[in-house]
Amino acid sequence: MKKWVFLFLFVPFYLHIMAQDTLYTYHDDGRIAEKKVMSRFEPETVQLLERYVDDQLQSVVYYDFTIADNPQDSYEGIYQGGAPFSGYFKLYRLIDDIQLIDYYEEGQLKYRYSFELLEQLEGYMHYIYDKETTYKDGRIVNGPDYKLVGRERLNTFYYEEGEINAFDVNLFAMHYFNRLTFTKSDGQLIVTEMQSPVQLHISEPNGILKIDVFEEDNLIASLTVPVNFDKDSELNAYHELENRGDVMTSIFFMCLFLEPDSLDQLFQKLMVHFQQENMEDVMVYE
After folding, report:
1. Domain ranges in the chain?
2. Phi, psi at residue 34, to the nearest 5°?
3. Mean pLDDT, all residues of the chain
4. How deeply is 24 buried, as exposed, middle or buried, from its count of CB atoms within 10 A (0-12, 13-18, 19+)?
5. Distance of alpha carbon 49 from alpha carbon 47, whole angstroms
6. Highest-confidence segment of 52-61, 236-245, 269-278
């Protein structure tokens, strides 16, 4: 005979306090058989179902998301020896209530699913996961990878054939969001900002870095950077650009003062820089 026990949790979400029920079912010997988590937005709807044998988690069924390439009413994950073995699992929290979806086969991570945050700000009741990251032998082959830095920054790295060819820097603050995008394409590093028409196009003609600054397709500044250039004299001509005081100008001068020897090295140094905790040099809020 199974017994039902109701446990009420109060969980804050987007300034609302909503009740979320967790229902436990027990075997005759008193050990847990099932755990149901009900939706905090639709209290009659099951969000998560866990099944146990001998107090060990055997399977989990999710009802609160959809994989765009494989739509189903629910998604099941099977555990073996207490570890994910096959199917779908929520194992990693990206930010707040947003979790990534992992897909396993024979105990190996094959895919990780995510979505574009800005496109589903109102989708918190049921997210649609339409971005896929593929893994082989525990390493990313293709797709996005995420790194949360503190509470103010989320970095996204885009892989192709095991190599990073672009990354985003998502900046958060009170009443503020911005995104910087760094992309290697056709022998150039292109830097864009979501809130600005300005773009940086960095190339490497004849082994020398060249930085072109465009605003709405108009070239407004250009600088050729020898490996050992004199910062004090070379930058005097760019005081007008420096006085702009915006994010893209900060990135422009950051590219110079990182002292790269090549375009690839600049790309690597920028990735490392944006994974550091202290980002005051580019956190410009308007």
Report:
1. 1-137, 140-286
2. -140, 155
3. 83
4. middle
5. 7
6. 52-61
